[in-house]
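Margin note from the TA: students keep mixing up input and output lines. Inputs are the sequences; the output is the structure of the whole complex. Example:
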Amino acid sequence: MVEKDEDKSYFGTEETDIKQELEDLKGKETSQMELVWLRFKRNKLAIFGIVVLLLLIGVAIFAPFIAPNDPEKTGADRQRESPSSEFPLGTDANGMCIFSRLIYGSRIALLIGLLIVAVSGGIGVTLGLIAGTMGGWVDEIIMRVVDTFMAFPVLVFAAGITIAFERGIYPVIIAVGLIMWTRFARVTRGDVLGIKQENYIEGAKAIGESKLNTISRYFLPNVLPSVVVVATIQMPSALLFSATLSFLGIGAQRPTPEWGLMVNEAQAYMWSNPWPITYPGLAIVITVLAFNFMGDGLRDALDPVRGGGD
Amino acid sequence: MNIVETQNLKKFFQSKKGTVKAVNGVSLNVIKGETLGIVGESGCGKTTLGRTILKLIKPTSGNIFFDEKHLFDLKLNPRKAKDILDNDGIDPKLRKSFEKNKYGLSADASVSKKGPNSWRIDDDRSTYLVKGEENSMKVYSVKDITDIDDKEMRKHRKKMNIVFQDPVSALNPQMTVYDHLNRPLVIHNMVSSEDEKLRKMVDILNTMGLKAEHLIRYPHELSGGQKQRVCIARALCLEPDFLVLDEPTSALDVSVQSKILKLLDRAKDKFDVSYMFISHNINLVRAISDRLGVMYLGKLVEIGETSDVFQNPKHPYTKGLFKSVPQPDPDKRVKAPLTGEVPSPVNPPKGCAFSPRCPHSKAVCERENPDLIEAYGRKIACHIFGKENF
């Protein structure tokens, strides 16, 4: 049917340096990430969010250079001082520098947020992948556990865990992480069920991929965009939970510079001096808003078809 | 020799309405080096058949034999051989015949009849098929892939592959073309060095009319035709013996279709691969296949040489199906040769599945299911050609 002699040139591999050629080409491609960035850029609030977060990360990294004082140093001689050149935002009831504590508080906030998302994401994505790929009774059991966890009153559960163990930020991370994995699990499982219908999963089987490789190379990379979005949306909730627990006195303990704890400490005298409670409150609000804006933008950018809905 | 043979293959799905008999007892063979076309209306189970043969979905019952090799001819008078094989247990004469050809049968070997002229012998090492062909009995060794476990099956996957209908869904959006070709080569240890691997990849891409630069592309950066060529390249890079082509061109433009078909034809010679070409496009199958199987409601109704079947279709359904192909000449057009609807595969008619729509339907058709029998140099499943009507 095909004239083979004429096509012979088609078959031969020219002995050019294929590796070099590919390296040269790599720089020229528009990758999928670039497309995502192009869509993300259009959303002004998202840009605001990412700028604020970058600033926050900068502050957290360079906290020792920005903060004028040791955030955990108390002083009986300088309680509740007004702003001065030494203490830009004044001192709190223990004589600790409010400004320095705010600066160092960004470290704690980001650490808590990241660890909570890592813990809950790790649990949730793993269980979601297992439930989605295995199906059957495994799926049924995991999803009923998810339902059970979702029915828990979050604060009571977290309070229980932190009280049962010791107080501090790590029990908070574990407690909140144990609560928040359900959303990761649901989203992951939902995506997996969709991906299962795609031919490339059957194709993976056809070339002899093992089950584990199919999950790690085919399912996982394709659920990651959704997981990233859930992570950015969960981040502010994680921050709020940890601030709430600290505010209630069962999270971070003195003298940790935690924003929720600072609100708690300042509320005693909020009517006589409202500023010490305002600063950490604002820090929480701005951080949470920034994460929310960025999360929304990311979702729209990563999933332009479904974007906007939840 | 057959590369693939199925015996009474069945695949049922459970649905809320009942059991869907997607593939309901298909026995066919794909001869080494040929293209077997499978046609039928949508829903007749042809796609499910392709997937079941590759064990991408688990068959409900039946057997799939792979990689048939001719071992020797039975040194027995065919009639005598039949008698021996039909009696359960391994006759000493049969054992002697095997031993003479250096294929000892183990003590626990067993014989089972698989068709009018074929038997299956299992011992602890391998599966043999004994087939009566004209004047002799031939013994083949086959791999029975029906019941082997996933791990064992993964090794066999090197020798068989599939190309899907929709190339968009068939490629992982998060993997480059390089990754798509890399995985099969790595899984089956096909290459020893990165250089050899790249050369092999580029070679196969060239065969498919693609270039080295496509290696770093993601699927969304390729056109539909290019994606399908990547799919074919991936299927072929393991140098398989058997490829299921599940409507590989129906999602593509007509101009791209012909290109893909030419590439497939070329690859067939280069890689010495046999195709099972599944399609609902009858003219396409006519052009590409050596033999043709017609499916109706999960069953094979007619199978034979393509030109033969086209020139002289015998089964009433085949006749109607071919007549339904739109003709460019208005004078030749026929008014809807097939009347009525395809019955539900959940509740197929008793007897012949085609009987409610068949113009030649008789009482026996509604009562008994016709077997696929030899007639006119092909196989037909219709009572018209049954013994009592000859």
